[in-house]
Specification:
Elements (H helix, E strand, L loop, with lengths): L1 H24 L1 H10 L3 E12 L5 E12 L6 E11 L3 E14 L2 E14 L2 E14 L1 E3 L2 E12 L3 E12 L1
Antiparallel strand pairs: 1-2, 1-9, 2-3, 3-4, 4-5, 5-6, 6-8, 7-8, 8-9
Amino acid sequence: MRNSYRAIIFLIFFLFAFSSYSQVDHLEHEHTVRDAGHTWHIGLGLSSAKIAGEQAMDPGIHVHLMRKLGNESNWSLGMGYEGLKGENWHNGLNVLLNYRLLEFFSLNAGPGIVFEKAEAKNEVKSAFHTEGVFEFHLAGFHLGPMFGLGFDSEHTHFSLGIHLGFGK
């Protein structure tokens, strides 16, 4: 598991360095792309998650679909899914509100529900999920590190991973 952390950290630093270089070379193009914006955004994240109180790290996936609230708005609204593969699958669905704090950083947060199977019984619980996403533009996509926090009545988890997204 320790090698996984090293690989994720190396990948994050590589992406930051590559994205910074790419932005310098294509500054005029990047400015045009950002000004045009996009109405719809689809994002996919792969992460490693730590559930508070447990030793193991669990692989996770994050998917969201967001719609911008107006052409010049920094706000978007949409739906998100998060799945964590632990002893039992932890599946969450959330209504997400997104705010683009900076050109390269946005926050998603919102309430939702979690589906889990515990002791041969399916459970549904209310939950809350939030994540921060760094976005660096590269060949029509945006790519960068993400971090997340989710909690329900029984668990709290933290995640760190890579986000890939595109807009239309």
